[in-house]
Design a protein that fits this description.
Distance between the termini: 72 Å
CATH architecture of the largest domain: Sandwich
Shape: elongated
Helix content: 40-55%
Strand content: 15-25%
Order of helices and strands: EEEEEEEEEHEHHHHHHHH
Largest sheet: 6 strands, antiparallel
């Protein structure tokens, strides 16, 4: 990519504009290509500032909170944010847009784009092409300039959201493919002693990675998931049988009846005896 920049009012006027009289307005846009080490001064603007990282890594802070912006990540600064960034002896390329308008905040909220924190959307030639088309509108500058810029900006923000959602779905699918067999194993062998380390080893994962993927997929830690499966089975046995609590506990995979009672009440809010009476 070649460096380029386009401003609504040219270089002779300030393009840092907050204009609430219009629904959406692109103030300026372009491509930054920086090959020498640099550090920006702390900057505060009145408009929204969008960066889409294409090459290299930026290190910076937004309102004194550090961040790292890598290729394929989006950064959206809200008006009034104090930001600064630098590189570390590598070529940096990013595409950028400054925009304003009374519809901007609502649009960003609808697209669920976070402020002042990197969002992973992935490197996408289509996104880069859409940004280039927005820049071309500044070159054409016909009577449809404002409408065209609004349409291209809205499409761009929506594309960022959809890309982020697809990446999240892909991660969920990957987690499911790796972890689901071990969850099925828990459902089948919940009466046996199960350890997180053994389940992780069977999934060919480190224990930490296994815990993270189970949490990502189920919202529970592996131990919490095992407990949920066992208590659910206990609930079934309490309703379907007249077994004494000691036998229910053993058949549910929690052989210590005192520990079973504590866990059961913590999960359901009732003791095993109260649960059985309630269901009679």
């Amino acid at each position: 990519m070649e460096p380029q920049g386009y401003n609504r009012y040219g270089l002779t006027r300030n393009n840092d504009i907050e204009d609430m009289s219009v629904p959406l307005q692109v103030n300026c846009t372009g491509v930054a290509v920086l090959e020498e080490p640099f550090v920006t001064k702390p900057t505060v603007r009145k408009d929204f500032y969008l960066q889409y990282m294409w090459e290299g890594t930026l290190y910076g802070s937004a309102d004194n909170i550090p961040f790292t912006l890598s290729p394929g990540q989006l950064m959206l600064y809200s008006p009034g944010t104090s930001y600064t960034y630098c590189n570390k002896n590598e070529k940096i390329t990013y595409l950028w847009v400054h925009f304003t308008g009374h519809f901007a905040s609502s649009l960003i909220k609808t697209c669920r784009l976070p402020f002042n924190t990197p969002l992973e959307v992935g490197l996408d030639e289509g996104i880069a092409a859409n940004l280039q088309k927005l820049m071309r509108e500044f070159i054409i500058r016909d009577s449809y300039f404002d409408i065209a810029c609004q349409a291209r900006l809205q499409k761009l923000l929506l594309t960022f959201r959809r890309r982020a959602d697809r990446r999240s779905d892909s991660l969920d699918t990957a987690a499911s493919d790796v972890v689901t067999p071990s969850l099925l194993y828990i459902h089948r062998y919940y009466t046996k002693p199960l350890s997180v380390s053994d389940l992780a080893a069977a999934a060919h994962l480190s224990e930490g990675r296994y815990r993270a993927l189970v949490k990502e997929l189920t919202g529970l830690t592996p131990v919490e998931y095992m407990t949920k499966v066992r208590v659910r089975r206990a609930c079934e046995l309490l309703v379907q049988t007249n077994w004494p609590l000691k036998r229910v506990a053993y058949a549910s995979g929690i052989p210590d009846p005192f520990y079973f009672s504590r866990v059961f009440k913590k999960q359901t809010g009732l003791s095993p005896s109260q649960y059985r009476k309630q269901e009679d």
